[in-house]
Design brief:
single chain, 444 residues, alpha+beta, Heat Shock Protein 90, 7-stranded mixed beta sheet, 10 helices, 12 strands
Length: 444
């Protein structure tokens, strides 16, 4: 066993004690086979010159043939029987005792080796099983570590996307604030001047009335066409004032959209917010979209970040405008409803196809905002990857592939949800779920 690991001394001693006890219980037949016994009888007969036999039971009277005991470790195991003198029988018994001694040594060595090998194998098997168990624990630990690393990477990527969206919103906010500041001042001058013009028109109206009372005044009024001139001037002034008011409203909507007037979550009415987003989007997307409104009245306010949620709906309107190379019909609807949220983060639907990102599984009150278009629609494969970062169907360089990813991350951060269903040639339906704020004093 030079190439095997040595067994502990106590184990070897126990093995020897077991074998020694086993040897004490052995008999002639266990140490010498029947064939070997017959051969020994032949050799003893040749040695003694008379027929000698080996028996394992002590001869008892009335047996008259002489016999002599064969002992091993002070115990008689057999007898030599034959018509020979005692010295001859004693010599034959001595030879058989040496045979027994050698047979016992061989038995001891063979069984000791076998026992040691068995015990060594048992110890090796136990170590192998322990190694397998340790390896299994290591694999489980490695798999768990890989999951944790993957989760950390996903969390870092999510935070990077949110930082990207936040920087984008900040840039839009700074731009909106700058544009609003630059536009508000001249718009203020224009409004003031147009209001002055309105007062001047009233003065000119009075002048015209007095002019008609003077000799030749009526003819002069007709010659100069003052009635048409004053009426048209009044209409132009009112239209200009209306245009200035519209510019002011757009600037205000831009400021609200960019979030420069408020910070953090606040109570918002969803219907006016959607109308404000469209007011900002209309100058750019109005040629591609025809919008129909189906807004439910008296919806409860939601706790939202104005800039972030406005960016979500702007992105969805922009996607609708790009859904077909023609004018797209878009229906924007709102409705109060409850839902059972599911545990998956993104699910591809069946039949027409559906992809969604969802929050925790529970029944919760809220409302849906649906933006449905009659564009060209999307395939099931596109829906499967719709919310994947950097996935885009636009030509290279035309889009980052982060628009819907940012929408999903923004809504999930608010406790919301987004779903998309579509089919080629059947348009697309985007549904945004927004939770109602919990009643005061109620927590999850």
């Amino acid at each position: 066993m030079s190439d095997q690991q040595e067994l502990p001394r106590a184990t070897v001693e126990e093995t020897l004690e077991d074998l020694d006890a086993h040897l004490e219980a052995l008999n002639w037949n266990a140490l010498v086979s029947d064939k070997e016994t017959r051969r020994l009888e032949q050799q003893l007969t040749q040695f003694a010159g008379v027929a000698l036999t080996i028996v394992t039971r002590e001869p008892v009277p009335p047996a008259t043939t002489p016999s002599y005991p064969v002992s091993y470790q002070l115990e008689t195991l057999a007898w030599v029987v034959g018509p020979a003198p005692d010295p001859t029988l004693a010599a034959a018994a001595g030879l058989l005792e040496r045979v027994l001694y050698q047979a016992a040594r061989y038995y001891l060595a063979a069984n000791l080796h076998l026992e040691v090998v068995h015990r060594d194998y048992a110890a090796l098997l136990a170590k192998h099983q322990a190694l397998q168990s340790s390896e299994a624990r290591y694999r489980d630990l490695s798999a768990e570590l890989a999951k944790q690393v993957e989760a950390q990477v996903q969390q870092i990527e999510d935070r990077q996307r949110r930082m990207y969206a936040a920087e984008k919103l900040n840039a839009v906010g700074r731009l909106g604030a700058g544009v609003a500041h630059e536009i508000n001042n001249p718009i203020g001058f224009i409004r003031s001047n147009l209001n002055s013009s309105r007062e001047y028109i009233e003065t000119f109206q009075q002048l015209r009335q007095r002019l008609e009372g003077l000799p030749g005044g009526e003819a002069l009024v007709k010659e100069l066409d003052l009635d048409w001139l004053l009426g048209d001037f009044s209409q132009l002034t009112e239209e200009s004032l209306e245009g200035a008011e519209r510019i002011g409203a757009i600037v205000a909507a831009l400021r609200r959209f960019a979030g420069t007037d408020d910070q953090g979550p606040q109570q918002l009415a969803i219907n006016p917010l959607l109308e404000g987003v469209w007011a900002v989007a209309a100058p750019r997307l109005g040629a591609q979209l025809e919008v129909t409104w189906q807004l439910q009245d008296k919806l409860p306010p939601l706790t939202l970040e104005r800039a972030a949620i406005s960016q979500v709906f702007y992105n969805l309107l922009e996607n609708a405008a790009q859904s077909a190379p023609r004018t797209v019909q878009v229906t924007i609807s709102t409705a109060l409803a409850s839902r059972v949220a599911e545990s998956s983060s993104e699910i591809a639907g069946e039949n027409a196809g559906e992809s969604r990102a969802q929050g925790a599984e529970k029944q919760e009150p809220g409302l849906w905002v649906e933006i449905r278009d009659n564009g060209d629609g999307m395939t099931a494969d596109t829906l499967t990857h719709l919310f994947d970062p950097f996935f885009t169907t636009k030509p290279v360089g035309s889009g980052t592939g982060l628009g819907l990813t940012v929408c999903r991350d923004t809504l999930l951060a608010m406790g919301g949800d987004i779903q998309a269903s579509s089919a080629p040639g059947k348009g697309t339906r985007m549904r945004v779920w927004l939770p109602l704020p919990a009643p005061i004093g109620v927590t999850d």
